[in-house]
Amino acid sequence: MAPASSTRPGSRPRTWPAAAALTLGFTAVLWVLEAWDQWTPAVLDDDGIRPRSSEGLLGVLFAPLLHGGWGHLEANTPLVLLLMFLTLLGNIGRGLAVTAVIWLVAGIGTWLVAPSDTVHIGASGLVFGWLVFLVLRGWFAQSLGQVLLGALLFLAYGGILWGVLPGQPGISWQGHLFGAVGGLVAARRFASRDETREAAPTPYRRRA
Fold it and tell me: Which residues pair with 120 in a beta bridge?
């Protein structure tokens, strides 16, 4: 007879190593691409979103990976590291789905409404989307812990959300706005009471 086995009540697989690895890997890609853009004849920034042009539609896929210089990338990196990690933490698959929704909504929205003579690049659309998702998901999930985390993030970084408004030259407020919209859509779609139930204790399981 095989020995009995059990799982601890309330135990869940640890996701933080995978979340950290994916976050660091994504950030490394951003820095490698910027180095390639800076140190080779390639002009990767031209591959961003070009509104309402067929070739510029491919920029929806590439724009979050590209930055307009080291300063642009350095400004985005701390929030990419923090907010992507928190989005993936707890459920990697759900976090990736959230990121995909934000990526597409931010890109397609920018492609549809931004001026046609512009090119839009940068991960800030993802940053705005992740922040809105993390701030709102606790309300949709009715999870006190997530509400408190969202409140802390809003107090710390909520000021950047003014970036969804037109104003500063050279800044893609359209990318910010539709990134935030993507975060709202993702919070409504993926943050649910299921997350609370997943954290509930589970009984011992034994097998002969």
Answer: 49
